[in-house]
Specification:
297 residues; mainly alpha
């Protein structure tokens, strides 16, 4: 039996056929059975098929890893749409996002805000398509979890650079990422304001814009801050405690991770945090002062 399996693994055509057989078998189990044991078995079968086909792809594209990771991402996207299982879709969305980051590592500074917009779309329109609510939620959690890991890896541009073995340099521009992520978060705040329809004064709008400028500056030094804020806003807007928890935990982690980085002294980081805290508290005081909200109250 071992010799037979070895011959199959060494044969590209036989391995490809076997991987698709495993995918079909997993699909049939997912579709026709609601038993937890069988669903877990189907998930394991699907993972085995994915591992097998990734090995085949690596044999043919090991010299072009960017293309390899892109094909893996397309495979995961296809599985996310095809496999009728919540957990499978979540994992497929997660791995697809990570694979795309690895494939397009040169554009990491743009990919982060781009996938933040994808997360906003998935969670904003989760109830617009009643027949696909679970699918939208699975995709949303997968993208959010991948973004949290990307931002939490600290120096992730180097991590994906090593994974992709790229021959050219990485275009990593923290200022561009901070500006674009701020725009995404500002868009989310605009959505919330539009839904709750408060009477927004010009003075209050100035306070909001100033607060976002401060947050954008902090995002330049503290990667992940704007992502944490966005996840909290998504959780608040949809009354989703899981997203709220993920946002709070990730935000605390990003701030703590920055505080213990060794490239800047603790005194300098303490001064930065004090300045940011004072500015944000000042903005909050102005936003809730009677001078700006007297018309609303």
């Amino acid at each position: 039996m071992g010799v037979g399996l070895t011959s199959i693994f060494n044969n590209t055509l036989a391995s490809t056929i076997l991987s698709f057989v495993l995918f079909v078998l997993a699909f049939m189990i997912f579709k026709n059975n609601k038993n937890d044991f069988l669903e877990h078995l189907a998930l394991a079968i699907s993972l085995a098929g994915q591992a097998l086909i990734i090995i085949i792809l690596y044999r043919h594209f090991k010299t072009d890893t960017e293309l390899l990771w892109f094909i893996i991402a397309m495979l995961q996207i296809a599985l996310a749409f095809v496999m009728p299982n919540y957990i499978h879709r979540l994992f497929s969305a997660y791995f697809a996002t990570m694979a795309l980051f690895t494939s397009f590592v040169s554009f990491t500074s743009v990919l982060v805000p781009l996938f933040m917009m994808v997360a906003v779309y998935l969670w904003r329109y989760e109830f617009k398509y009643p027949k696909h609510i679970q699918k939208m939620q699975a995709f949303g959690y997968g993208v959010v979890l991948a973004l949290i890991q990307v931002e939490a890896s600290g120096g992730y541009e180097k991590l994906f650079y090593l994974l992709s073995h790229m021959k050219h340099s990485v275009i990593w521009m923290p200022w561009l990422e901070s500006v674009l992520t701020t725009i995404v978060v500002f868009y989310m705040v605009f959505i919330i304001i539009k839904e709750y329809n408060p009477k927004l004064t010009k003075e209050l709008l100035i306070v909001f814009i100033s607060a976002f400028v401060v947050l954008s500056c902090s995002a330049y030094y503290i990667p992940g801050v704007m992502l944490g804020v966005l996840i909290i806003l998504l959780g608040f807007n949809h009354s989703n405690r899981i997203l709220l928890g993920l946002g709070i935990i990730s935000l605390l982690y990003y701030v703590s991770a920055y505080y213990y980085q060794l490239n800047v002294t603790l005194l300098e980081k303490s001064m930065i945090f004090i300045a940011l805290g004072v500015l944000l508290l000042l903005g909050r005081w102005l936003a809730f002062s009677k001078l700006l909200l007297k018309k609303e109250l």
